[in-house]
Amino acid sequence: MSQEAKVQTLPTFYELVSKETRQLLYETGSEISVTKGSLLLREGELPDYIYFINKGQVRLTKTSSEGKVFFLQNKKQNDLIGELSLFNHLNSQFNAEVTQDAELLRFKRDELEKLMINKQELSVAYMQWLSSQNHIMMAQFRDLVFCGKQGAVFSILIKLSNEYGIEVKQGVLINRKVTNQELANYVGATRESINRILKRLIKQNVLSVNTKYITIHNIDFLKNHLRCHNCPFEECTV
């Protein structure tokens, strides 16, 4: 099978349900507006609500006992927040912070559980979507565990280029400022470690950095290191 034939795009939760079921969700939930900087979930607490993102972004983070912050994932339009507490009443394993002003659909946990029990299409969509989210998280940890800090940095650079990249004469420009501290938070490293990795890549002419804007000159170098050609999914963003 060719690589082109096996590539898949991960659907959003919204795309997995019918128009009728979407309307049912809107009738069950409450629409709310949340400002940047607000916390939807706190690590260690049992969530009372599940959130569906209509607009905006929410970042999932985890904090170590030493206070180091680790970025897990950015949740975007049509994603769910707090979904892992459904049907098991487990405490949240991460913080969920709004990073862009957001329009959300908020559900009481028990109400959404009842809706899924009574609506088979919704419960199947939930399992499909949860499986795809698990794939994303496993890929992230695979890059970190098997490829080390350097491989994890390569992975984040590829994801940032997929999400914010624009083609330029020199390669792919990540069209937003990216600090060493941000990269460190994504891979659980220190800023000094990130600085050393970027310096090596600059010396090898793999990338260049200009006032915190990164241009990747040889993205195949990063992809080959991570063996991206073995990945069955097209979507790869932060």
> SSE order, as H and E?
HHEEEEEEHHEEHHEEH
What is the radius of gyration computed over CA atoms, rounded to a whole number of angstroms?
A: 19 Å
How much helix is in the residues? 40-55%
Tally of helical runs: 7
Structural class: alpha+beta
Count of strand segments:
10
Runs in which pLDDT lies below 50 for 5 or more consecutive residues are 1-8
N- to C-terminal distance: 28 Å
- Profile the largest sheet: 6 strands, antiparallel
Question: Mind explaining what this structure looks like?
Answer:
The protein contains 7 helices and 10 strands. It has helices at 3-6, 19-28, 109-118, 120-164, 180-187, 191-203, 219-226, and strands spanning 30-34, 39-41, 49-63, 69-75, 80-81, 95-108, 165-168, 171-174, 207-210, 213-216. Strands 1, 2, 3, 4, 5 and 6 form a 6-stranded antiparallel β-sheet that branches. A 4-stranded antiparallel β-sheet has the order 7-8-10-9. A hairpin with a 2-residue loop joins strand 9 (207-210) and strand 10. Helix 4 packs across helix 7. The longest helix is centred in the middle third of the chain and has 45 residues, at 120-164. The radius of gyration is 19 Å and the shape is elongated. Residues 1-8 have low confidence and may be disordered.
